[in-house]
Amino acid sequence: CAVVGVYNADTAASVAYYSLFSMQHRGQEASGISSSTGEKLITIKDRGLVTAVFGDDKLKKLKGRSAVGHNRYSTAGEDSILDAQPVFARYDLGEIAIVHNGNLTNAKQIREDLIQKGAIFQSFMDTENLIHLIAKSQKEKLIDRIIDAVHKIEGAYSLIFLSRKKMFAIRDPHGFRPLSLGRIKNSDGSFGYMVASETCAFDLVGAEYIRDVEPGEMLVFEAEGEPRSYKIFEKQPRPCIFEFVYFARPDSRVFGHNVYEVRKNMGQELAREKPIEADMVIPVPDSGVAAAIGYARESGIPFELGIVRNHYVGRTFIEPTQQSRELKVKLKLNPIKELIQGKRLIVIDDSIVRGTTSRQIVRILRAAGAKEVHMKISSPPTISPCYYGVDTPDKSQLICANMTLEETCRFIEADSLSFLSLEGLRRSIQCDERELFCQACFDGKYIV
Ligand code: 5GP
Ligand code: SF4
Ligand code: MG
């Protein structure tokens, strides 16, 4: 998912809107914004893309100088309007809207416990737990209730809370999902503040990146002036390595590293680890482009855009059934026949999940006359599902968890198949040796 919070800024809702638009890749199922007029919160949310949910007239209704927004990508809950965010509620202290990127690992226990005690839920979202935890806390002030509530939850969360007067942003102690702080200049010269999942949002709305919200940190935005920082958990950073592989936009700066640079390095590492003779290197657009550039540069084999992408088709894995996913690959990708006919191809993609994309690609390349197709993946085999906010299917559907390398290669019908090693992936980030990441989908070692 994508989250954004805007505080004390001119046209806050429109800043939130453009931010969500720039982060559409993080979730395409539903979108929503809550704004605060200072007196009340206004919420508009629906299923669909950002542009479909908010026409001009709708944005105008979202008055006020603060707003939170969300793009949904279902990892917990169901694909229904009830599961769109922000989650909004009225309670004894007033009104609150919450947006959440991540996935709470103890949501089920908390929910059962709350239901036992008489709570009623509207949605299947783990985020709804937070409303109840905040409403039930015995503390007097909202800030203390939020702190209370987040001490009861576990798992991955980058959270933003908006009340009528204040905004709070929190990253879980491991900092699984990204969250960055920026500021934006108002027409009177004062500054408003922003938090967003990715820094590409700041670029679009003309905000200035300040720093990342730290794992275990809470920022409180109140009246004028800079946000106040509270360390509410001991830091144990384990940011998600898959943000670099696939999830984040290449023009974003995530966990202190530019995503494009990291992806290019991944391609270079892959060329060093898994060399092979071929006539050209072609990416699976868009997710394989940066790594293919790196691979071509390192190997000296020419880079070509051998597959053209139709940009009016979104991310294919979001499709609910296997059949519709297969059709969508065809709709989305088409090879350039004249270019690849009779050629030995190295095809670069970022990851193999179910194997659907890779197999379809190999098939369309062969049908277009490719002589050899060598599939190279710029991450290790995905062998375990993610419980921290990325929608990988369960283990039974992960092809690399159920087949050997040779079997997977045969399944996708390629001449050869190879993956980047986990060490190679780490090297690509060029981080400090002691820097730890979550890499559970690649090594099965879960942190929470
Ligand atoms: P496959 O056809 O192997 O299931 O899909 C793999 C492709 O889907 C990758 O090339 C990648 O672009 C994209 N993908 C990236 N992240 C995810 C994810 O979290 N879940 C799924 N299913 N696919 C993803
Ligand atoms: Fe990221 Fe994989 Fe960890 Fe999930 S399991 S947080 S996708 S590294
Ligand atoms: Mg892809």
UniProtKB/TrEMBL annotation:
Catalysed reaction, written as an equation: 5-phospho-beta-D-ribosylamine + L-glutamate + diphosphate = 5-phospho-alpha-D-ribose 1-diphosphate + L-glutamine + H2O
Pfam family of the protein (one): Pribosyltran
Annotated pathway: Purine metabolism; IMP biosynthesis via de novo pathway; N(1)-(5-phospho-D-ribosyl)glycinamide from 5-phospho-alpha-D-ribose 1-diphosphate: step 1/2
Keywords in alphabetical order: 4Fe-4S, Glutamine amidotransferase, Glycosyltransferase, Iron, Iron-sulfur, Magnesium, Metal-binding, Purine biosynthesis, Transferase
Sequence positions that bind [4Fe-4S] cluster: 240, 386, 438, 441
Superkingdom field: Bacteria
Gene Ontology BP annotations: 'de novo' IMP biosynthetic process; purine nucleobase biosynthetic process
Cofactor note: Binds 1 Mg(2+) ion per subunit. Binds 1 [4Fe-4S] cluster per subunit.
EC supergroup of this enzyme: transferase
Gene Ontology terms, MF aspect: 4 iron, 4 sulfur cluster binding; amidophosphoribosyltransferase activity; magnesium ion binding
SUPFAM superfamilies assigned to the protein according to its UniProt record, in alphabetical order: N-terminal nucleophile aminohydrolases (Ntn hydrolases), PRTase-like
Glutamine amidotransferase type-2 domain boundaries: 1-224
Keyword Secreted annotated: no
Keyword Transferase recorded: yes
Its biological purpose: Catalyzes the formation of phosphoribosylamine from phosphoribosylpyrophosphate (PRPP) and glutamine.
NCBIfam families: purF (TIGR01134)
Family: In the C-terminal section; belongs to the purine/pyrimidine phosphoribosyltransferase family.
Protein name, entry field: Amidophosphoribosyltransferase
